[in-house]
């Protein structure tokens, strides 16, 4: 039998990782930035206008990571509730800083119109290490399931539980990066003992809607708003983006709940996952943050103007 080619430095090709391989992988992870210097102070500054709560605390290798959420102070059960999440994948920087930008610059415009619940950085350990996984080599964004193996995901689900059935909107802020193809997808294949199959990184912003509740007009309204900030990803030669058929300009759909994705944790009528492309020569980090905040505003504006059935309010 011809041995499988090695495409990742950890593990044996064709064999899923065990504890030894996960431990080796974890030992290789290096802190590149500080959650307690870049994220926590920005959230703390919001206490003047919002309620800030610690909804969980993760402890890894003797270090504690408080999980903070920002909530409308004048919470009104008669208003629609909007959920925003960022940093589920810690390396997707604009997900975190786009959520913070929205809170700092735009959230005040929704006071008295909507209840806001924002979790800007769901995965702080991964934020520091610019990684997709948590320390156990688990992807939080495939772990929003009952008895979740990821502490990050379990904590967020507990936070959201009281609004799970009543939320009108959930927008989850992500990025698709070149490192998905060079680092994270090869690591995933190695971890699971599967061959690595190269893919294609789309050049531009796109959305991932819910194949069980696609809400095409809502998705298009968000794309149209972001198009004023950064370019929208075209379909590839197969009419796809990251292997999924394009169903609208810059829009694909996934079965959110079946895949354990963050955007599927509520019964909201309007759900989407943003995907910013920060490695494009046509986009700057600031542009990426603005694109995320713009997407949040557009999503909220649409959700406020339409009832869950899609009729104008």
Could you please describe the fold and organization of this structure?
The chain has one domain: 3-Layer(aba) Sandwich (Aminopeptidase), CATH 3.40.630.10. Helices cover 30% and strands 19% of the residues. The protein is built from 9 helices and 10 strands. It has helices at residues 19-27, 35-38, 40-44, 93-105, 124-129, 151-160, 178-192, 216-226, 285-305; strands spanning 50-60, 63-72, 81-86, 115-119, 167-175, 206-210, 240-241, 244-245, 251-254, 270-276. It has an 8-stranded mixed beta sheet, with helices on both faces. Helix 4 packs across helix 9. The mean pLDDT is 95.
For the record, the count of structural domains works out to 1
Instruction: Report the count of strand segments.
Output: 10
Strand order of the largest sheet: 1-2-4-3-5-10-6-9
Radius of gyration: 19 Å
Distance between the termini: 65 Å
**Which structural class matches the secondary elements?**
alpha/beta
Region (Disordered): 1-23
Protein name: M14 family metallocarboxypeptidase
GO molecular function: hydrolase activity, acting on ester bonds; metallocarboxypeptidase activity; zinc ion binding
Keywords: Carboxypeptidase, Hydrolase, Metal-binding, Protease, Zinc
